[in-house]
Design goal:
heterodimer, A: 148 residues, alpha+beta, five-stranded antiparallel sheet, 2 helices, B: 152 residues, four-stranded antiparallel sheet, two-stranded antiparallel ribbon
Chain lengths: 148, 152
């Protein structure tokens, strides 16, 4: 009878332990999940900033407005009103990627006549995801003046 | 636990192991969350810094445009530094030094500024950028910050 009572209390303890462990694990998983989401958001924003700065410095390195076609030759070019939009798809490490790209860098460049020279205004947008799930990560505006 | 010693009524080895495991998991979870939060705060500061720099850079380009326009005015060709010294362009004050360079600075956030200097060409038609750099906004005063150095 005493042995039977010992086994009974052991199983009771195990049930309580498992119950408490599962509740604790659920709470701890929330912590890890929040940490993972924050770390991922941080890594994405860092990568987006690096890509945007790279595109901005590419714009700044142009010696003439016509240089942009050569400097952004790895991307696709389309015309949207007065702005030329250069689109480049990049992998998670920032290298050029075709399909399954992690990031998309869109550089919309508008040239305005700023007498006596020319002002180049660029809006750089870095986004991630595909199609309808695409979300904007970082936007950077830059200008470059070319003396006349 | 069943027949032998008991550490505490109802508390066996499995309970102690479970408490240890939960404490470990909670510690690691909280530490990883704090680490991720710190990374995020640093990323936000970096973001502000990048945005501030490119905003200042864009403004500097606008000022350069105005300087270029002023240099092409008939009156500025002979003595460009004299004409542009003290002039306010796009809310930025220009100053001319002894070397005939025209300089201006634009604040980048609270602690830095973008310093730009241009040298008008002899023809008076354009300019050459001689300085384009980030510098600390305030002078560092180390006199009031004594370091506790171990003297041996």
């Amino acid at each position: 009878m005493k042995r039977h009572s010992g086994i009974h209390s052991f199983f009771l303890e195990m049930i309580l332990v498992l119950l408490f462990l599962s509740v604790s694990c659920a709470a701890v998983l929330q912590l890890f999940s929040a940490a993972h989401a924050t770390a991922r958001r941080s890594a994405e924003l860092n990568a987006a900033m690096v890509l945007a700065q790279s595109a901005a410095e590419t714009v700044q390195s142009a010696e003439t407005p016509a240089d942009l076609d050569r400097l952004f030759q790895n991307g696709r070019k389309k015309q949207e009103g007065k702005a030329s939009v250069y689109t480049a798809d990049c992998g998670a490490d920032g290298s050029p990627a075709g399909q399954n790209a992690a990031y998309r860098v869109e550089t919309a460049v508008r040239t305005s006549d700023a007498a006596p020279g020319v002002m180049l205004e660029a809006k750089i947008t870095v986004s991630s995801g595909d199609g309808s799930s695409r979300r904007e990560l970082f936007t950077l505006n830059t200008k470059k003046y070319f003396p006349g | 636990m069943t027949n032998g010693k008991r550490l505490y009524p109802g508390v066996g080895v499995s309970s102690i192991l479970m408490i240890f495991l939960v404490l470990c998991l909670t510690s690691f979870g909280v530490l990883s969350l704090f680490s991720a939060r710190s990374d995020w705060n640093l990323t936000r500061k970096n973001r502000e810094s990048v945005l501030n720099y490119y905003a200042a850079d864009a403004k500097a380009q606008q000022v350069l445009r105005q300087i270029d326009a002023k240099l092409r005015e008939p009156g500025a060709r002979a003595h460009p530094a004299d004409v542009l010294d003290g002039l306010s362009v796009e809310g930025t004050k220009l100053s001319a030094g002894r070397t005939k360079e025209i300089g201006f600075s634009i604040p980048v956030g609270d602690s830095q500024r973008l310093e730009v200097s241009v040298l008008p060409e002899a023809s008076g038609q354009s300019y050459r950028i001689t300085r384009y750099r980030l510098a600390a906004a305030g002078k560092w005063n180390g006199d009031d910050r004594h370091l506790e150095v171990w003297q041996g």
